[in-house]
Structure formats: structure tokens, C-alpha cells
Amino acid sequence: TGMGVTSTYVEGRSETIGFVAAPKAARVGLLADTTGPLDRKFLRWIPKDAVSFSAARFDVKKIYAALTSALRAYDEDMAEMAMGQLGQMEEQLGVSIEKDLFGAFGDEMVTWSMPMAGFGIGAAPEMAILLKVENQDGLLKTLGTLAAMTEGALSLDKVERRGITVYQVRFDFDMGNELGGMNPLAMFQPTFGFKAGYMVMAFSTGD
């Protein structure tokens, strides 16, 4: 097992590719199936002034199995109790966390970062994340259902911006006197939309 990196120039731009060399039988867990070519059509969406970007294969579906396996390995009885409670909640809500949330995503992920517009702890990082999506309607239904459970602490709003439908996540937590009454989540307003089979997400509406 080993790790390696290749670096070259393509059309005047630096291209660096990292890889892991491991026997197929030994590849287990989250990173078991991260090999294979990437669809590079997303390259045309990356802003010209982006300072960096990365693309990788990552099967989001396997996060659920990895979490439940880790919980069972830690405490089998506690895991069975937790899974039983989750199953009851899913039945009441009419959604499946495994199928409708984690299972809604594909196995491609792209990120890019923009130049910093300013400094300060009150600014969200200027970056975007693209995730391959296989079930957009199921994902939106599940996110809306989970948001409704929070009784206003978290909301999912559908809005139109420049003729494009986007969804904004808003946080409204009462921090009381903790952190001097400051809500550190206030600087984040995750916003996402869908395009050509991808979820395009940023940490603020401006991005």
C-alpha cells in the first residue's frame, strides 16, 4: 500500500493528481471505491478567477454504513437501541435517512475557492461545493422534513434569484449568554441549487 502524486502542465495550467495504491481486496469502508475516471464537464462551471479547485470520487452513500458500523463496533446494544429509535422516527416521518438522504447522492465531489474579499471572523469562506445527485426530489423532501422537526431552529427556504431556483438554510439558535450572546452560525447561510445532475452549494447567498 502506498500513496503518490503526479503533477504536470495542461494548456499552461498546473494539474496535480493524488492516488492511493492498495490491493483491491484490502479497500474497505468509505474509501473503498474512489478509483475511476471523473466526468470533467464540471470544469466549465469553475469561475475563471478561482484560486484553486479539486475533484474526487467519494461515495456519500457509504457514510451511513460507516457510521452504523462504527457505532456497533463501539457498543452493540447501544447501536441496536439507537437504530430502533431511528427506525421509529423514520416511520413517523415517512423518510429513510439512509435511502432518501445519503442515498440521494452520487460519488463525485468538486470544490473550488475564490480569492478572499476581506478579513474577519464574521465572514464565511468564499467557496463552492458540487456533489453528484441521483434523487433531487427525495433529497429536498427529506431536508424539508428534517428542518420541520427543529421547530424553527433550522429552516429551508425556496427562493428565486436571477431566474434560478435556490434553497437557503437558515439557523436560528438561542445561544443565551454563551459566547457573549453571539451566534457563530449567523455568518453562514448555506445556499444550494441544482444543475445538470449536481447540487451546487456555497456557504453564503453571495457565493
Overview of the molecule:
- This protein is α+β, with helices and mostly antiparallel strands and 207 residues long.
- It is built from 4 helices and 9 strands, in the order βββαααββαββββ.
- It has helices spanning 61-74, 76-93, 97-101, 136-149, and strands spanning 2-10, 13-21, 52-57, 105-113, 127-133, 154-161, 164-171, 191-195, 198-202.
- The chain has a 7-stranded antiparallel β-sheet, with helices on one face.
- A hairpin with a 2-residue loop joins β6 (154-161) and β7 (164-171).
- α1 packs across α2 (76-93).
- The longest helix has 18 residues, at 76-93.
- The protein starts with a strand and ends in a 5-residue tail after the last strand.
- The relative contact order is 0.12.
- The model has no long low-confidence stretch (mean pLDDT 79).
Quickly list its features:
single chain, 207 residues, alpha+beta, seven-stranded antiparallel beta sheet, two-stranded antiparallel ribbon, 4 helices, globular
Short synopsis of the structure:
25% of the residues lie in helices and 32% in strands. By secondary structure, it is an alpha+beta fold.
